[in-house]
Amino acid sequence: MENIKYPLTERRQRSSSAMRELSAGRHLSHRAFIQPLFVEENLLQPREVNGLDHVLVENENSILFSIEADIHRGINKFLLFPVPVTRAERPSDFSFAISIVKKIKEHFGDDIWLALDCCLCSYTTHGHCGILNDEGTGVLNNPSVEILSQYALQLALAGADCIAPSDMMDGRIAAIRNKLDAFSLDAVSILSYSAKFSSQWYGPFRDACHSSPNATGLRDRKTYQLPVSDAEAALSAAARDEQEGADMLMVKPAGHFTDIIYRLKQQTKKPVVAYHVSGEYATIELLAKQGLLQREQAHIEIWASLQRAGADSIISYAAREARQWIENRAY
Ligand code: PBG
Ligand code: ZN
Question: Does the predicted TM-score (pTM) go above 0.85?
């Protein structure tokens, strides 16, 4: 064609919303989303969390209404973070978490899938995910795993459908699986925080749970969470967790770790779960409030990117919006 100098090669595919919709790649589904929930003991009124707009820390009663509302919005999978009032050096009282799990599961039964974050940082005076040595300078692996697996067992006996250990101790997946199996809780699954990096992006979450590490001798989680620059460590931790019996493997944070999501997806046949964490959510919310981006589209964009990288499911603080946003999505 002599009079067509620059024939359309790529742009025809994007020439109408119908063409864009047909060539968009995989489509998102709200069914792949998990909504995180906070519930605090003895809380008079649900409270807001700095940075986490549209998210509340609920109390023992309001949590039921919140779940009910989410079910109506098409979300039936939850990751629950119980925030107890009392803290200890070596936590042993998990009664608040147990009672709230019982209450929720008695109310909703199998209408919902309830995963419980299993960690000690909301229980310890010092805010670490395990218990400390006598000098307060290090987190003890084995005693922490003992307590965590006891806690996991109690959560499962209370009715949790899934245990999600976020502590990053070594050997906890095997310990938890053994405990659950010994009590014939073989239907209870384990979602392992396998590739959990030591990140700045957990800030709003730590405010919500009052779980910042504050031991004088140890102020960060670097001896157990992963170094951001080390992809091999993340893949190795995930392989280990899979071998120990994890049913699902998580990458966290998500948005700047899509290489890990991609590589983990190549490495495993297990579902890969991306956790778009509190600080990542807050980043979008703050930019949206400044009028610098569109909230809805920005969340959709990151979700599509996580899916493209290989995530099978997504934990997002905006999960409860997923069905509506995905349905209304403009192509
Ligand atoms: C507790 C835990 C954290 C998150 C999930 N479980 C915080 C941390 O490790 O300090 C972060 C979640 C988020 O930021 O949304 N171990
Ligand atoms: Zn923790």
Answer: yes
